[in-house]
Specification:
8 helices, Jelly Rolls, 2 domains, four-stranded antiparallel β-sheet, alpha+beta, Arc Repressor Mutant, subunit A, 243 residues
Length: 243
Amino acid sequence: MSATTCESKQSAVSKTLQRCPLFAGMPLEDIRRLAAITVVKPLAKGDYLFHEGSPVHGFYLVRSGAVKVHRVNSLGREQVIHVFRAGESFAEDSLMSSSGHPADACATEPSQVLLIQKAGLLEMLKREPDLVMCLLRSMSRHLQILIGLLDDLKLKDVKTRFALWLLHQCPDPGSRQPVVIQLPSTKRVLAAELGAASETLSRTVAKFRDQKLLAVDGNTVTLFSPFQLNRLFAAQPVSPSVN
């Protein structure tokens, strides 16, 4: 590979890192140093990045596509912890783990992720306190995801979980205007993310359709009135999505 090609690829990686909320406000020189220890990993649908207990080689940033972080119990039942999409990072909390990753991660569609390699990152962390704060903020967000997941599974039924998922996809959950929402590649992926069986989710979608709350065309949902859905199912108003 020529020096020009390498520089071009590193420049593209730097631009991706700059657009990531995790690194917002970081000096360009620090971004370039991160890019130098970053590897681009293309994934086909179903490819695994890591398995539970496997060694930690760094943390990841989704450049395109979607990556599902999940666990499977002894009975083969899967629980999705979160589906990470473009601009989101994950596995920061495993960097200092001696027991490997606590879950599995695989692509739910053709994807490209950036691996920010552990050895180089740990060296940077010794010199860059701003980067330490970036990672702490990210891990705090991941903790909020886990708390939200626990709250949803224990305290909310599938209808409420699906309604809240739809509302979180809306730029303005208080709008009375129709909003078009693209579902994940398959309803099975969304069902797993919501902690529900595929058949249960299908019945829930049918009930919402019968209630004139939405229309479905393939993987495209038209939500007729986010305000109405919010009023019916949200105990507290849902904030606009930041994604």
